[in-house]
Amino acid sequence: MTGGDRTIVHLVRHGEVYNPGKVLYGRMPGFKLSELGVRMAHMTAAYLADNDIAHLVSSPLERAQQTIEPLAEVARLPVTLDDRVIEADNDFEGLTVGVSPRQLLQPRFWPKLVNPVKPSWGEPYAQIAARMRAAIADARVKAEGREAVIVSHQLPVWISRLDAEHRRLWHNPRNRECTLASVTSLTFRGPEVTMVTYAEPAASLLPLASAVVGA
């Protein structure tokens, strides 16, 4: 239960995307949820259905909007689209580097690989943290004393968690705790984060999911 000066902002990663070509799709349009991804979205909606949700936010990308639809129906709330919670920009977008990493051996890609801490191949981690922090703060204010849900993407959600926990932003992508349709919940007392929790409502479906690229 929320109330008083306690507010919760749930950060939801979208469900599985239909991507038979294993493309790093990033911000590319047209990538929608697979049938399994739709099932994941409904499981996450069911997980959050009994919460005291007052405000819904989504990335403008199709897969995020599809993920929040079942929850919007259950909560009977409108969805605010917010560019600040969009997927991270990536210079390798449209490639299949996830399944064919040897592509990165091409000399034209070398300048993009010089600084993994920043990272040099895409939007800086600090920039992602700043835009997500601002969007989360706005959602917290709109849901004050209750709960808000933001549907975003793996990297922005994970960076937000690292930022909230005052951990370094650069990391090994294989170590992210942010599976498909997962829920990372930030509990606030006033403007301060007091607790971070994590749940996987669609865990039973994860073994059926294909390898996800650019999520």
UniProtKB/TrEMBL annotation:
SUPFAM superfamilies: Phosphoglycerate mutase-like. InterPro entries: His_Pase_superF_clade-1, His_PPase_superfam, PGM_Phosphatase. This is Broad specificity phosphatase PhoE. GO terms for molecular function: phosphatase activity. One of its GO terms (cellular component) is cytoplasm. It comes from Allobranchiibius huperziae. It holds the Pfam family His_Phos_1. Signal peptide: none annotated.
